[in-house]
Design goal:
It contains 11 helices and 10 strands. It is of the alpha+beta class and 368 residues long.
């Protein structure tokens, strides 16, 4: 007598169970061997790709392997169309959930890698911004996959997607300023135009970056005051990051007296060049020229570069060079010019016995 259960014989059920068991064992063994092999490779290699694949394999759960194996075994059996459709939907839903777990694992792996790379420079606020990026990416992953699962199970998601879109637009319009600062914060974290500790100049304000938050960035000014910018405003401005300079340009104007002999004037640029090139902190000498004949002085313009961007080193070097230039001018008998005016006395004041009040010039000035 042939035994039949749900339209399939015992032999067919046995074949289906054998196929499901063999598939499960095969996939589980392959997963185990791949994890073991990739773990060995990851220890020796410096790339992160194998580490990511290793995390994805470890996030492959046994329950999904069993569901997929059971579905493959069910293909050996004959079921009504309604049952076959639901078996297919359950298997696809399980695979979608597993894919969502893989995507979630990849996002978390990216966050761990990002935080490890930024260790030592990432502020608390930057860490919070990174956490928000991680949360938003994971939220998008799960929302997308849940919509796919609902669609696979036969639900009409068109109305739901439209509702989410309208609601998202309404929320975005209501909090657009906050969202703008939040997105600007994420831009600062990812692009890093500056980090905490950098000395920057934003318009008329300058100071050291003290805090990078989700809405504001705060500078500590030279006078000790705290300057607060919204993240959106600070990204719209031109930012000068002084900390990321490799060298610093220095320039000054040397004003020499008009009475200086031209031969001595010709000796000034070579003298300045020798002084600058001999200094240990200078990177290169650029130029020294007689720039113009001013109202009360002969102006030499001097430009050179300092090795370090540090402002204190810049001031010490500039001071040392200026003192050396003054010593060189004194040795050569060259005087530094200073503003002066010549006062010409009224010629009538020089006439003996003449009164300034009754001189013709005074009468003319007084209108008499």
């Amino acid at each position: 007598m042939r035994l039949v259960f749900m339209g399939n014989s015992i032999e067919e059920w046995g074949t289906a169970v054998a196929v499901a068991f063999a598939t499960a064992v095969l996939m589980y063994t392959a997963r185990y061997l791949l994890i073991h092999r990739l773990a060995q490779v990851a220890e020796r290699s410096e790339t992160r790709v194998d580490d990511w694949f290793l995390r994805l394999l470890r996030a492959t759960y046994t329950i999904f392997i069993l569901i997929l194996a059971l579905y493959l075994g069910s293909l050996m059996l004959e079921f009504p169309r309604k049952y076959e459709l639901w078996l297919w939907r359950v298997a696809v839903s399980a695979m979608l959930i597993q894919a969502a777990i893989w995507a979630d694992t990849a996002v978390r792996a990216w966050r761990s890698r990002y935080r490890q790379a930024a260790m030592g420079t990432e502020s608390v606020a930057s860490a919070a911004s990174t956490a928000i990026i991680d949360f938003l990416l994971r939220l998008v992953v799960w929302v997308v996959f849940m919509l796919m699962i609902l669609d696979n199970l036969g639900f009409n998601i068109t109305t739901l997607v439209a509702s989410l879109g309208i609601g998202g637009i309404a929320v975005a319009l209501a909090v657009q300023n906050i969202l703008g600062d939040l997105l600007a914060s994420l831009s600062i974290v990812l692009d890093k135009p500056f980090v905490v500790g950098d000395f920057i100049i934003v318009g008329e304000h300058l100071g050291t970056v003290e805090y990078i938050g989700l809405k504001t960035t705060r500078l500590r000014g030279l006078g000790g005051d705290q300057v607060i910018f919204s993240n959106g405003d600070i990204l719209k401005a031109r930012i000068l990051n002084q900390t990321r300079m490799f060298t610093r340009r220095a320039a000054f104007i040397l004003r020499v007296h008009y009475a200086t002999d031209p031969a001595r004037l010709e000796a000034i640029p070579p003298m300045i060049k020798a002084i600058i090139e001999a200094h240990e902190q200078t990177a290169s000498f650029e130029r020294a020229h007689l720039r113009d004949l001013a109202e009360w002085s002969l102006n030499f313009e001097v430009v050179y570069w300092i090795k370090s961007p540090d402002y204190f080193i810049f001031m010490d070097t500039q001071q040392s060079i200026l003192l050396a230039v003054l010593r060189g001018l004194k040795e050569r008998g060259i005087e530094v010019a200073y503003p002066a005016r010549m006062i010409v006395r009224d010629p009538y004041d020089c006439i003996e016995g003449a009164s300034p009040l009754h001189s013709p010039a005074s009468n003319k000035r007084e209108g008499t």
